[in-house]
Amino acid sequence: MVTCYLKYVIDPYKLAEFEHYAKLWIPLVNKFGGQHHGYFLPSEGVNNIALALFTFPSLAAYEQYRQDSMLDEACIAAFKYAEETRCILSYERSFFRPEFGDS
């Protein structure tokens, strides 16, 4: 199992646009076999950082999702929406494996 952590630097004046973008991606990740854990939008503190977490059964499954998403019409539309609205200034992606403490 691998969890993808995305840290976004967003335009704080385009929070509504970023929230719309986030709502587009949650069902798309799930459609491709992942489990989306949600987007976390600014509340208190910094106003230009947002996070997302989603899990795939393996890094190979995540890589397959990335390839398939580049050909999927709904995914392409979501990428285009972010590009057109310029709500995302930059992002970084990291991967983590969970530890549940089971023996």
Would you kindly provide a brief summary of this structure?
This protein is of the alpha+beta class. It is built from 3 helices and 4 strands, in the order βαββααβ.
CATH fold annotation: Alpha-Beta Plaits
The DSSP helix count reads 3
Give a quick account of the main beta sheet: strands, pairing sense, barrel closure: 4 strands, antiparallel
Q: What's the pLDDT, averaged over the residues?
A: 95
Q: What is the straight-line distance between the termini?
A: 17 Å
What ranges have pLDDT less than 50 throughout 5 or more consecutive residues?
A: none
Strand and helix order: EHEEHHE
What is the overall silhouette? globular
Total strand segments = 4
Structural class by secondary-structure content: alpha+beta
> Cα-atom Rg, whole angstroms?
14 Å
Strand order across the largest sheet: 2-3-1-4
**Strand percent estimate:** 25-35%
Q: What count of structural domains?
A: 1
According to CATH, what is the class? Alpha Beta
Give the CATH architecture: 2-Layer Sandwich
